[in-house]
Amino acid sequence: MVRHYEVVIDSQDDYHVSFLGEQVKAFVKESGVQNGIVTTVTAHTNTGIVVTEPLECIISDMNDMLRRLAPDDAQYAHAHFLPTYGRTSANATGHLRSILMGNSCIFPIQGGKMLMGEAQEILLVEYDGPQARKVFIDIIGE
């Protein structure tokens, strides 16, 4: 059995974190799948899916780390006129930060419940907002 869900998250800032864990758990329950996997994937190249402990200090440190690794004021090849878009791109940092953090996660399902560690949370992290962002949740199993 395969169940597909989509959610839209409206980010509020250029760097915005949304918690998805409870919503994904609800979809697992609704799906009726007893044993299998659940995947969570962002549909965008300027967002990331991150699994971590949802503490404000970790979220702040993650933002600081990403800004050090892909600084806002650095020279990027992506920051030039793109004929396919008809404009200059200014979101190279969003792409690079997304590459660093990844775009998906997978959790097992056993006995109809998603298996997560007590301190784990699924985060959708925006790196180029505010924008409406789509997330795909697929549940596969029996």
Describe the secondary structure blueprint for this structure.
Layout: E1 2-10, E2 16-19, H1 21-31, E3 36-42, E4 47-52, H2 56-69, E5 81-82, E6 87-88, H3 92-101, E7 104-110, E8 113-114, E9 121-126, E10 132-141
Antiparallel strand pairs: 1-10, 2-9, 3-7, 3-10, 4-9, 5-6, 7-8
What is the number of E strands?
10
Helix percent band: 10-25%
Largest sheet: 5 strands, antiparallel
The arrangement of helices and strands along the chain is EEHEEHEEHEEEE
Q: What is the number of helical segments per DSSP (H or I, 4+ residues)? A: 3
Q: Which geometry do the CA atoms define?
A: globular
Determine Rg (CA atoms, Å): 17 Å
- Strand order across the biggest sheet? 1-10-3-7-8
Question: For the terminal residues, how far apart are their CA atoms?
Answer: 6 Å
Low-confidence stretches: none
Structural class: alpha+beta
Strand percent estimate: 35-45%
Considering the chains and any ligands shown, give keywords for the structure:
142 residues; alpha+beta; 3-stranded antiparallel beta sheet; globular
Characterise the protein shown here.
The structure is a single chain. By secondary structure, the protein is of the alpha+beta class. Helix content is 25%, strand content 39%. The chain contains three helices and ten strands, in the order E-E-H-E-E-H-E-E-H-E-E-E-E. A five-stranded antiparallel beta sheet has the order 1-10-3-7-8, with helices on one face. A hairpin with a 4-residue loop joins strand 5 (81-82) and strand 6. It is globular. The N and C termini lie close together (6 Å). The relative contact order is 0.40. The model has no long low-confidence stretch (mean pLDDT 93).
